[in-house]
User: What shape does this take?
Amino acid sequence: MKPGGSSGRLHALRFESQRFRLLTIVVGCFLISLTFLLSSRPDATVFSTLNPRESLEDARMPAMKMLHRSSSAGLTRDFHVDILPQQGDRDTHAHLQQSVDQTAEKTEWVKDTVIIQEVAGERSEEAEEAAERVAADSGDEAAPAVVADEDNAVKTTATVATTARPDQPLVEEKKKQQLPVKLQDAGEPARTPEQTVTSLQLNFEIWAPTNVADNVRAMNADSVDRRPLCDFSDFRTDICDFSGDVRMAANTSEFVVVVDPAAAAAASHKVRPYPRKGDATCMGRVTEITVRTTGDAAGAPRCTRAHGVPAVAFSIGGYTGNIFHDFSDVIVPLYNTVQRYRGGVQLVMANVASWWLVKYDKLLRELSRHAPIDLAKAGAAGEVHCFPSAVVSLRAHRELIIERERSLDGLATPDFTRFLRRALSLPRDAPTRLGDGTGRRPRLLVISRGRTRLLLNLDAVVRAAEEVGFEVVVNESDVGNSIEQVGKLINSCDALLGVHGAGLTNMMFLPPGATMVQVVPWGGLQWIARMDYGEPAAAMGLNYIQYEIAVTESSLKDKYPAGDEIFTNPTGLHKRGFAFMKQTLMDGQDITIDVTRFRPVLQQALHNLAAK
Assistant: This one.
C-alpha cells in the first residue's frame, strides 16, 4: 500500500465523518423541534389534506366565538371575535367542545382563524376571506355582496388583549383550569379573568352599495318595535302614547313624530282627547288632534320652543262645567295619567275656559310645575312645541274610579283622594266617632239642589237627622264656588246626604270612613246611581247607603195616570235613550221624602260612625 493512497482514503473518511455528524445534528434538531411542538400543542395537525393556510390556521387556533355583529344605519358591520384558550390535554378540550356544542343554539362558533394584514389602506386576500367566512356562518346574505365591492369595501382594525395570572406560568394555569362555559342572561358564555387567556376583537366597517344598503335597512326595519301610536280598544277613550322627536304644530292641532323612514311606516290617527268617545254630542265639543309620523325631518314643523319634559294633551271641553264631569272626565284621569311624572310634565289643553283654569288652579299646580299651554292660543301665535315624548288623551277607567289593576303606575282611587286632601290642605283623614270622648256630634251635610230633583220637604229631613243625633249643615253646591272652600266644608263633615246628581261628587272630600247617602229618584235609576256614585264611594273608602224612593214620594204621580208605563215599567223607557231619561225621569221630577220610611237610613248612617 502506498503512503499516498492511505492518506487519501483517510482524508475521505474524515470528510464523510464530518458530513455524518452534521446530518446527525440537523436530524436531531428537527426531532427535538418536532417533539417540543407535539408536547406543547397536542391538538396540532401534523399532516393535513387541507390547503396550507387552513392547516396553519387550524393549528394556531381551533375555535373562535363570534360574539357580536351589528350594523349602523345599514352601512357598517362590526364583528367581535373572542378566541377560546387552548387546553392542556385532549380530555379538557373535548369537555370544552361538548360545552360549546350544548350552547350552539345561543352562540355561533367559527372554526377558522382570521388573519388580517392591512398595508397602506389595501385590502388583503385574508381579510376578504375572513369577512366571507364570518358572513357565511352568520347567515347574512347581504354581507358577501358587500365584501365583493371593488373599492376598499372593508376597513379593519384589530386589538389583542391578554389576561393571565402573573404569578404562575401559563401552562400551569391551563392544566388547572377546566374552563366550564356558563351562559349569562344575554346568552353569552361567561368566563372568569383567569379563564380568559386571549381575546381578539376585529372591527369591520363595511360600506355597502345602494342596493345592499336597502337590504340592510329592510332587515333592521323588521326588527323594530312596531307598537301602534294609538290605542283605540278602550270603551271610554282613545289614547296615543309616543316618544322620540315629537313636534306639536299648534296651528294644525297635530303631533308629528319624526322617525327613520326605513324603521317605521308612516302612520296617521285622529283623536278627540276626552273620555266620552261613545257620546257624539259630547265629542262634538272636543277639538280633534292628529297624531302622525313622518320620515321627512326637513319637512316636519320646525320647533319654536323645545321642552325637556313630556307633554300630556287633553280637552276641557265636552261636559266640563259640571263638577261630576270635571272630575270624572278630566281631573281623575289626569291624575292617573300624569302622576308618574311627579310634576315634570307639560299640560297641553284644548277647548280652554279661563274660569275652569282658575277654579282648579291648585290641583293643576300640584300635577305640573309648568304653566299649561292653551292649544288654541299657541296655534294663533304659530308656535311649534317640541317634546321628548307625549300622551294625547287621558287614561280614564270607570266613573270617578282609578282601577289599580289597570293603572300603569298601580294607582287606585284612595291615592287620588289623598292627593286631593294634600293639594287643598284638607286636615281630616278620619271622621268623628261616636263615643270617642270628645262629646262632639257627627256632622251631616245635606246638599240642596236649586233647579231640578228638589227635596221638597228638606226641613223635615233636617229635623229627623237632628233627632237621630247629627249636627246638620245644608249647602247648595254651585259651579262658581272655590274648590278649596268646598273641599274644606265637606272635609269637616262625617256624612253626606243628597239626591242623585253632580253635587254628590263632593263626597271625594270626605275623610275615609265617612258615610254617603244617595236618594235615588223614581224610574229604575238604581243602576246609574250605583255606577256614578255608589261604586266610587266604596272605592274611596266610604260607607255607602242607597235610598230608592217609592212612587208616592215622586212628583211624577201628579203628572201621569196611575197605570202609565212610567210606573208599571219604568226601565222599559230607558230604551228611548239617555236624553229622554234625563228629561223625564231626572229633571222632570221632585221628591218628597217619607220621613218615617227614611228614618232607619239616618240611623244606619249614624251607626256607621260608632267607635270601632
